[in-house]
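Section 5.1 Outputs to date
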Amino acid sequence: MRTRHINDWNNITKPLVAVWLVVLMVSGCTKREFNLSQDTTITGTLDPTFAVPLVQGGWSFGEVIGSIEVPANIETELTGEITAVFPFDAFETAPIPLMPLSEFVETTFALGSKQAAALSLLPAGAELNVDFSHTLEVPMPHLTEVDSVWLGNGTLGIQMQSLLALDINVSGTCSGILRQGQPLTIELDLDAASGTSDILIPMTNTTLIGTAAEGVSLNWELSVTLASTGQPIEAGEALTFRTAFEEAVVVGAFGKFSSELSQDIEARMALPEITRWDPALFYLSAPRLVLEVKNSYGIDLGLDITEFSLGSDEGVIPLQGPAIDAFPDITGALAVGDTAWTTHALDNAGMDPDWLDLLNAAPDSLQLLGSVKVLPPPVGGQFATATDVLSCTGAFEVPLAGWARGVTWRDTLSTPISQKLQAGVAPPLDWTDVTSVTLRFIIDNGWPLELNGLVHFINAQGDSLLAGPGLSIPGGTDVPATAIVDYTLDRPLAMELMEMECAAMATTWTLATTGAGMGQSVELNANDHMSMQIAAKVECQIDPTP
């Protein structure tokens, strides 16, 4: 009888003597030994190559984390640091109200006795010119100084009323109202028989110009032409001039806002589901809650927190400490259309209780109660528009740093193992000559994780066909740790593996970070890499006797 090792890239197609000659010619590449003697079995060994490659796989830690379905965004820094980010919305509000304008004013121009007498003496068609002023005061209750106001809708109504037996023409200009960059001008005609004349002016894309006072004063300079109809005029008869905003929508206000302006905030947010764990098995070294406040108002705002707490099945857990009290001022935007971001991180520094205790309580909600107030600026230059908003989003960020043990990870490596083993034997040998198969597992572990695993050979349907070896692999530190495990199947098991249409290998790993037993923290890096190779050595025994 003769025993040999077969590899899948050397085919044996010659009689035994020819094979021996071939071995001599290629002995510089592969070591083979054949010991021949008359009337005895012939044995041979192929050493040390495992020549039938079955499985080869590699995993970077970043790829593994990216394949896990969790309600989190996995973010990787250029350095490879991995952070699981669980985002949520906190609140959105508009703390600076912009109220529509509905103000109006009437100015009456009454004729004195001398004016009435003069008009009565005029022949029909003769004219008399009179100038007068008209002022509409527009309060802006939330500003202490008004530079300008943008209007986006509504109208300005202008009306003239008179019972005078005169034909009247009024023309005027208001330098405090700009349309298309120019002061607003008007003209109205009123004949003696009509009594009323009015116009409606759209306020879209209109700007009111202030003077740094609390409100806006819209001053009209009016010129009135009175044309005689030849009828007498009585003293005391009057001309009334009226201007009125009708639901004029304010879309922007510029100036200095009152520091007494504030708005209450009451926000309750659902947190991602967090499962309780045994603190003896799991520790996170740097979890943090990050709040990002987006402010498109051109106003610095302050957030006064009266309550910041987590809710769980155990009740409300108040959060206290300098990290809560020292919430920064919320910076205002520099220009219309911009957004200023203010970020505040709540980590274990200055938090009571700390995050490890909080998370182990499995909180399901976050509550924020307080108020937003306007901070006084050193000078003016503040603004608010109708599209501005103050909003806050949050994220619970968990850098993958700390220690853990008892964590389970499962994976499947798909490869036609049975088919590859069958292809590793070529004529004149066949599987009737196989005595055993040795599977060699080579694992290079660059993860700072100790791996203890079990292997199962499965079919395409995922059914377990054959249990493989247990694997114990040390964690990598500065350099990957390498483990080599040989697993020998005797002839019955080897034949079973060849014939069962094994299509994949399922692995189950129990993970522990390096040094977890001593409470040593590690940081997992996206570039940490682990690889596994599996190859087979097939031993055959052949009876050369015909």
